Each structure stands twice: as C-alpha cells, then as structure tokens.
Amino acid sequence: MSELLIIGCGGHGKVILDMAKKKSKWTTIQFLDDYHIGELINGIKVIGSIDMINSIDNYDYIIAVGDNKTRESIFNIAKNSNNTLVTIIDSSAIISDTVVIGKGTVVMPNSVISTNSIVNECCIINTGSIIEHDTNIGGFSHVSPGSVICGNTKIGKSVWLGANSTVINGVCVSSDIIVGAGSTVISNLRVKGTYVGSPVKKVK
Q1: Is residue 82 predicted with pLDDT exceeding 90?
Q2: 24 and 60 share one domain
Q3: Which residues does the annotation say bind substrate (predicted)?
C-alpha cells in the first residue's frame, strides 16, 4: 500500500477523497492546495502548496481540479516529479474491458463507458455520464454529470461538456470548446468557443 496526495481540496477534491477512501488502497491520504495549507478538509490535512509535489518522492497523486486549463497546468508542474499519477474509478462505474483510460483520469459514480472507447489523460468523467462505443475523448476534458456522448464521436482536448448535454453519434467536437448545460450537439463543432442551445449555436 502507498500514500495518496490529492491536489486541490475544493468540491471536486472532496468527491475524489470519498472515492479514494472506498478503495482502501492507500495507507494515508493528504491534500496539496495553495490556499488552505494547514487546514483540515473533511478530516484530511492540507500539508502544503501544489509545488510541494516536486520536493517529495514516492507518492501516488491525482489532480482534483475541475477547470481544464488549471488541471493541465498542474499536470505540467507535477509530471517530472518522482511521484506516480494515478487513475481513480468508482466501483459503481460500468466500463467495458476494451476501454482505454489515461493516467490521471477520474471516473465518477454510475458512469458508463462503452466498448472500444478511449479516454485520454486527466479527464473528468463525472457522475452518471454515458460515453457510448468507439468514442475518443482528448486529454484534460470534462464530461459533466448526466451528459451523454453517443457512439463514434471524437471529443478534442480540453473540452467542457456541461451537465446533461448530449452529443449525437458520429460528431466531432474540436479542442477548447465549451458546450453549455442541457445543450445538444447535432453537427461538428470546429471553431473554439462556447456553444449553447438545442441544437447548439455559438454564443462566444
């Protein structure tokens, strides 16, 4: 058994803490966070700032920050440390044995990832989301609670799909796109920006 560092102690970090505790894999769990050093968060101590990851060795760690760009920035800070980035998957998630999941990704309770899909590094597959067959999700993306991605879909890097959004089958959503909560994507989205509505329209 080893020790786990959760980087980020906000709401997302507390959810990951609950998931990590259920696994009984780590002897010790602690937080790193720039703003709450020394505090106890749900009984777990914040032992230092984020850059402390580069001055310690032999820990497992997970980046528990919801914002895609911030999560990628922390990944770049930590990737050359002598620690191990882990993947955390809730026991209630349903995942095909043909699925590939990248390091640092978290798969939240009651999510479904179907056959031959790929989820790249440091993604968030949030509670109750569904990812259908042959889908590829780029690194540092966030699939929010209740979202549905239909089959043969390609999601770029650092995409944010809002809660209860839907992407129909065969669609491509390019990198750095935000899809608003409850929106429906029925055709390819190629231009970076924010899209809302059903079907979506670019608003920003």
Answers
A1: yes
A2: yes
A3: 66
**Residues forming the active site:** 133
Domain that residue 156 falls in: 89-191
pLDDT at position 1 is 64
The Cα–Cα gap between 146 and 188 comes to: 21
Q: What is the DSSP string of 146-202?
A: T-EE-SS-EE-TT-EEPTT-EE-TT-EE-TTEEE-TT-EE-S-B-SSEEEEETTEEE
Closest CA relative to residue 88, chosen from 76, 77, 101, 99: 101
- Binding site for acetyl-CoA: residue ranges? 142
Percentage of residues in the chain having pLDDT higher than 70: 100
CA–CA gap between residue 55 and residue 76 (Å, rounded): 15
Please give the mean pLDDT across all residues of the chain.
97
Annotated binding-site residue numbers: 66, 142
Question: What is the CB neighbour count within 10 angstroms for residue 39?
Answer: 12
Does some domain include residue 51?
A: yes
Q: What is the CATH number of the domain that holds 146?
A: 2.160.10.10
